[in-house]
Amino acid sequence: MERTLIIVKPDAVQRGLIGEIVARFERRGLRIVGMKFMQIDRQLASRHYAEHEGKGFYESLLAYITSAPSVVMVLEAPNAIELARRTIGATKPIDSPPGSIRGDLGVEVGRNLVHGSDSAESAAREIDLFFAPEELVNWSRDVDRWVFE
Ligand SMILES: Nc1ncnc2c1ncn2[C@@H]1O[C@H](COP(=O)(O)OP(=O)(O)O)[C@@H](O)[C@H]1O
Ligand SMILES: [Mg+2]
Questions:
Q1: Backbone dihedral angles phi then psi of residue 34, each to the nearest 5 degrees
Q2: Does domain 2-39+69-141 have CATH number 3.30.70.141?
Q3: Global pTM value
Q4: Where are the alpha helices (DSSP H) in the chain?
Q5: By the 8 A CB rule, do 73 and 35 touch?
Q6: Domain definitions of the chain by residue range
Q7: Which of 65, 87, 101, 112 maximizes ligand 1 atoms within 8 Å of its Cβ, making it the mutation to test the pocket?
Q8: Could you tell me if 106 and 8 are in contact, meaning their C-beta atoms sit under 8 angstroms apart?
Q9: How far is Cα 59 from Cα 148, in angstroms, rounded to an integer?
Q10: In what order do the strands lie in the sheet with 114-116?
């Protein structure tokens, strides 16, 4: 089992797409183990996006991610990180195939709707940043044996 951190970003929340985006992960079969609605502050945003500090888009990225509430989730499945990244699409919506979240719903890289961890190390770091251990629920679904082998 693997866990990944997903953020339904402020543009998606403002556009009324929380349900649409959560539903895509849910339908695919990833198991939700944590979820919260929050406005990310600058300090948390700068820790989350530390790898991008100094890049040209860094300040606009922080302004974007802190501009309105987000929904932050931890999802679980075998290969959850790669599954979620493929469901999300490429960083730029224009490079994202139809069928992916960014390919179906997005136009610009600075309004690309959703974040997903890009590696096991990032996932562990990001989950720890956004969730206390007691906020994550260890559970199994009745349908799990029809989704996971
Ligand atoms: N060239 C860019 N111009 C504006 N925003 C960008 C650019 N590149 C990345 N971003 C923003 O920064 C976020 C983090 O970048 P990155 O980690 O490379 O992409 P991803 O979210 O696909 O993992 C992107 O999702 C996007 O919101
Ligand atoms: Mg990234």
A1: -160, 145
A2: yes
A3: 0.98
A4: 10-14, 18-28, 42-48, 58-65, 80-88, 101-105, 120-130, 144-147
A5: yes
A6: 2-39+69-141
A7: 112
A8: no
A9: 41
A10: 31-38, 70-77, 2-8, 114-116
Q: Classify residue 98 by its DSSP letter.
A: B
Quote the ligand 1 centre to 77 CA distance (angstroms): 25
Given a contact cutoff of 8 angstroms between Cβ atoms, the answer to whether 80 and 4 are in contact is yes
Q: Across residues 108-116, what is the average pLDDT?
A: 98
Q: Residue 63: which pLDDT band, with cuts at 50, 70 and 90?
A: very high
Catalytic residue, from 17, 115, 117, 131: name it: 115
Q: Is the CB of 20 under 6 A from ligand 1?
A: no
Residue type, position 19, single letter: G
Q: Quick one: pLDDT band at residue 53, thresholds 50, 70, 90?
A: very high
